[in-house]
Amino acid sequence: MGMRLVQKKREIPRNKKEEVEELERLFKEYPVLAVIDASSLSATLLQKVKYFLKKKYGDSIVIKSTKNNLLVLAAKLAGIKGAEDLESKIKGQKIFIFSKLNPFILYSQVTKIKLPAPAKAGMKVEKEIAVEPMDTKLPPGPLLSAFGKLRIPTKVQGGTIWIAKRTVLAKPGDVITEDLASMLQRLGIYPAEEGISIEFALDNGVILGAQQLKIDVEQYAVQLAQAFSMAIGFASEIAYPEPDVLKLSIAKAFRKALAVATETAFVTPETAEAIISAALKRANAIVLAMGEKAKELGIEAVAPVAVAAAPATQPAAEQKPKEEKKEEKAEEEEKKELSEEELSSGLGALFGP
What we know:
Helix content: 40-55%
CATH architecture of the largest domain: 2-Layer Sandwich
Oligomer: single chain
Number of strands: 12
Structural class: alpha+beta
Shape: flat
Number of helices: 13
Largest sheet: 5 strands, antiparallel
Distance between the termini: 121 Å
Radius of gyration: 42 Å
Order of helices and strands: HEHEHHEHEEEHEEEHEEEHHHHHH
CATH class of the largest domain: Alpha Beta
Strand content: 5-15%
């Protein structure tokens, strides 16, 4: 009778099962997953990020460090859309943020957290780096030559090296040398910044890269204002029935009606001044076009005049009795009454049929 070898099924450790179950729960509770590159992330910065997010958002955010394969497995078990894409995108050491926040807000909040960092050789300087007169607390000896090499004036006082006067060590655009990087670290000067880099976020099955998550707030505000202006313009053009829009629509309709009435010489108290002004402009244009011929004929351009000017007041000595004054006033009112029809027909000749 032959022997048969039976391979014993490998049992998954209990702690891994519990980890996957916890991750599965997080996937179901938090709709957004952000992935952070942890390869060069300092523990100090990570602790600061955790503290800041916990204080500001409470349980809306959970930061988790786990194995990549366990996270992908949990995403699949939770039925998350895009779980298959995670397997190919998550490589190397990562830290994961489960969030109820909008991924764009999450990105802006996380990436703005910075810590001072030491300068590294080869780094390009963005801001001026200078040292002030101070006690460096460093003992004299071989270090004096290092200060001299960087042209930092020093003196020995009280058994330590003192910087004698303010010295600029690097200007914007300069490249940090190894000697300068070492000196800055000795002096406790950290001109660089260290921050968190979110590689991508998964939101309802959609993967958003860092460039998509990064929003220029000022540019976005300008675009939003432009969109609002265009929407208001369109709404007022079609007289969309909203109180604020209708005010604009009525004002626009009045301006258009006034323009049409002026163009067709339709005289009303509101259009009379504009019609006369337009007539004078056209008449003056004709005079200018005639050139010297206008001068020969004694025709001159006329300056615009105010419409419905008040009649000049007569001196007191020349005023007539009250009865005569009333009769004159009645005659003037009659002239005003017929002026609209006469003016309309007269100006029609200037504007054409």
